[in-house]
């Protein structure tokens, strides 16, 4: 900006740099996605094509923004974990959130026909975003566990609800049938009334989706002595795992490796 008498307006800008040595989480949520999914006739309770579209957008995010080390998504939301040491846009919240939201939304629109070649997009999707800072990797793990627990609770309820509706109940009657039920009750309802074993449903529905960088060791050639020469290859990967326990994290310790 050129020096002028109007430059004083810059003094009103807010310093929104996020604190250093904190993991940054940007969570993106669909706005009015109930309406969007209804207008595009998404399958209930889960539309696998819609979920895979969200996952594809998340993969693009990790490929485009190398400081994102992990992402977790369920339904119309996605959480992106920026590494503790990131200096992306000087850690400014006013840059991180809109850039993440706008890029994700743009990719969603661009990839729509890839996943829904039989459906014309009737209205543009839009998402909101928020940013949270966590000072320790342990808290990031607890955050992700919270989101996965939420995935299970919502998916189990929605699976019961929509099967009841499809069996002939009104939506209000289905809500009444589920009022006051706990997880065990819902599992029994699914199995006894519909022959559905909840634990056998696709993991993408029950556990959500994890997007991360997998480090793969591969042999590229043999040396003169016939010994394999190996190199480490990085690949953005989508999986559906339990991230509440520590098995996944122990197998991938580099994802949330803290600063020394």
TrEMBL record:
GO terms for molecular function: GTP binding; magnesium ion binding; tRNA guanylyltransferase activity. Mg(2+) 1 binds at residues 29-30, 76. One of its GO terms (biological process) is tRNA modification. Its EC number is 2.7.7.79. Signal peptide: none annotated. It comes from the Eukaryota. One of its GO terms (cellular component) is nucleoplasm. Keywords: GTP-binding, Magnesium, Metal-binding, Nucleotide-binding, Nucleotidyltransferase, Nucleus, Transferase, tRNA processing. It catalyses: a 5'-end ribonucleotide-tRNA(His) + GTP + ATP + H2O = a 5'-end phospho-guanosine-ribonucleotide-tRNA(His) + AMP + 2 diphosphate + H(+). Residues 139-244 form the Thg1 C-terminal domain. Belongs to the tRNA(His) guanylyltransferase family. PANTHER family: TRNA(HIS) GUANYLYLTRANSFERASE-RELATED. This is tRNA(His) guanylyltransferase. The gene is LOC120275354.
């Amino acid at each position: 900006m050129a020096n002028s008498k109007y430059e004083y307006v810059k003094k009103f800008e807010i310093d929104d740099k996020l604190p250093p040595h904190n993991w940054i989480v940007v969570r993106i949520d669909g706005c009015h996605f109930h309406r969007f999914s209804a207008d595009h006739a998404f399958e209930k309770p889960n539309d696998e094509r819609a979920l895979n579209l969200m996952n594809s957008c998340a993969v693009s995010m990790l490929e485009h923004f190398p400081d994102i080390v992990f992402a977790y998504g369920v339904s119309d939301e996605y959480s992106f974990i920026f590494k503790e040491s990131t200096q992306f846009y000087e850690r400014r919240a006013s840059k991180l959130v809109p850039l993440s939201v706008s890029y994700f939304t743009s990719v969603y629109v661009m990839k729509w026909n890839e996943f829904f070649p039989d459906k014309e997009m009737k209205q543009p999707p839009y998402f909101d975003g928020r940013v949270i800072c966590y000072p320790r990797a342990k808290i990031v793990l607890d955050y992700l566990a919270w989101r996965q627990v939420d995935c299970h609770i919502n998916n189990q309820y929605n699976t019961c609800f929509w099967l009841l509706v499809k069996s002939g109940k009104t939506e209000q009657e289905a809500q009444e049938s589920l009022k006051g039920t706990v997880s065990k009750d819902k599992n029994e309802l699914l199995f006894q009334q519909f022959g559905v074993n909840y634990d056998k449903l696709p993991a993408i529905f029950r556990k959500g989706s994890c997007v991360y960088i997998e480090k793969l060791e591969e042999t590229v050639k043999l040396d003169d002595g016939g010994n394999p020469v190996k190199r480490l290859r990085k690949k953005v990967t989508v999986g559906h795992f339990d991230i509440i326990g520590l098995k996944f994290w122990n197998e991938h310790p580099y994802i949330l490796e803290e600063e020394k």
